[in-house]
Amino acid sequence: MRLPIIAGNWKMYKTIEETIEFVTSLRGLLKDVPDDKVEIVICPPFVNLQAAASVIKGSNIKLGAQNLFPKQEGAYTGEVSPLMLRSVGCSYVIIGHSERREYFKETNEFINEKVKVAIEYGITPIMCVGEKLEEREKGLTFDVVKDHVVNGLKGISKDKVQHVVIAYEPVWAIGTGKTATPQQAEEVQKYIRKLLSEMYDEQTAQTIRIQYGGSVKPENIKELMACENIDGALVGGASLKADSFEQIVKFYK
Ligand code: PGA
Description:
By secondary structure, the chain is of the alpha/beta class. The protein has a single domain (5-252), classed as Aldolase class I (TIM Barrel, Alpha-Beta Barrel). The protein has helices spanning 16-29, 49-56, 82-88, 98-103, 108-120, 133-137, 141-152, 158-161, 182-199, 202-207, 221-225, 242-249, and strands spanning 5-9, 39-43, 61-65, 90-95, 124-129, 165-168, 209-213, 232-235. α1 packs parallel to α2. 2-phosphoglycolic acid binds next to β8.
């Protein structure tokens, strides 16, 4: 059985003060969520990680970052290393988000490097894949997703890939309020699992968690989570409000 994972991607929102207040209330709201029902992750901006880490200490909430630079240290002005993320308490890191692919021109090759480095440092990568609207309209969804998955996981062995989380995020559904229907999401998530079984083997494919992301909210989480190949959600906007994130995390209720 795959343990569902709900992760909040805060993007570039919240100051340190807001982080402390928000995470304190979240901690209280989520304290009864059993570990065997769902794994909870929050991914604040880099500068808020330390503050969030101190508030979640000893709770069932885990910490993730939104990016990393694939070197331990060095002359890379403005970048943050996996060693630094580990030392602040991150056990997860989002990699290859569509906003990074789009605005920061991240390529599959660079994303692949980051995924490998995250694994090497014991940080679970949440690798994002997904097609743009025009790609879907041209019937290229599977081709784009295949390209992201195959090249993002290049050179990653069977025993290591089990530690990767994949987030299928159709770009047209991100921040638009336009969620993929459960059928649309499941179709692609099922395809990703089949792809993984071809790249590795069936047993390995069955262990890898595949999240859905793109306008996930309290109103649609249940039907999404009811799909066989959806193992959780990467949540943007709705992760910024304590009550909506709480309802999403408690989808099983
Ligand atoms: P959204 O963002 O939930 O606001 O659509 C999801 C994401 O970008 O990960």
